[in-house]
Amino acid sequence: MKKSVVEEPRLPGIEANQKSIPHSFFVGRSRPTPSAVYDTYWRFAAERQATFFARLERPLNPPWTEDPVIRDYKFTNVYRAADRVSQYLIRNVIYTGDQSAEEVFFRTILFKLFNRIETWETLSEELGPLSRETFDWTKAVNVLDNAMRLKIKVYSAAYIMPSAKSSFGHDRKHSNHLSLLAKMIDDRVPLRIQQCGTMEAAYEILLSYPSIGPFLAYQYLIDTNYSSITGFSENDFVVAGPGALSGIAKCFPDLGGWSPGDVIRHVTEIQEREFDRLGLMFRKLWGRRLHLIDCQNLFCEVDKYSRVKHPEFCGQGGRTRIKQIFKPTMKPISFWFPPKWEINDQVG
Question: Distance of CA 109 to CAs 6, 104, 159, 178, Å?
Fold first, then answer.
């Protein structure tokens, strides 16, 4: 049933940034308190997406934005699936090889445990095509041991992977993570996820495994959902990661009666209205709206962005600077998305 839209009233006696939030946001709940960072959330989204298309359309002609923060520091793309690592995962890992549930899940989680293209390619070069049926777990451990001896990075710096030593007993983190994947395969997790009726039920299965907390369980589920194993909508369920929680706290210092998930869902629902309100031109991903995972990610990125743009606002964790400087990779990406999204014919 379609929800009725309540027109935004004129509310005397409150600040302009509070007036900007649609009245429907407050119905039946105690009122959250938006800050100036809330409008920045939408401005950042529009400019970061414009930068994405500018770089795509004129790759050899930087700068791709006049925003000094976006120009100088590294931010993920507005749409998670458009990031370089996600693009490699979708095209080269998920949709290359056997498409059975067990094989796709094996390849996806093997890649995501390390979340590093170079690690996947190193394993492929040493072990041959990576398949659940032929994977040599002992050799894989040796390959990664050798990489570490050579001071080669095995893990991405995107997020920290807990070691899982207390569950599997190995001294090396990668040995524990390969044991984790082996256990998930033995427990028939791919088939169990495939049989779930909701995204949340599939999330709970992943969450039940050692060292996989709420953030990783949700991220792994989104990656798995790029495949044909599951057919969940990315608007079915959301979990706010640590960075998103910090960004939400900056946008709304007082959530009132709302949870972080409520906020993410709400901004996803009203995105066109807010871009229009601020006079922003937002270029969708070849017609695809922002989904929950994208708006969750945007809160994480605006947390970083506001460290420079709004240093007076404190989030969670006490971070005050952006660590990663933007260093363009000139290797072009041929963008390709999950076929079920039905946008690949429009991708230029």
Answer: 43, 9, 15, 10
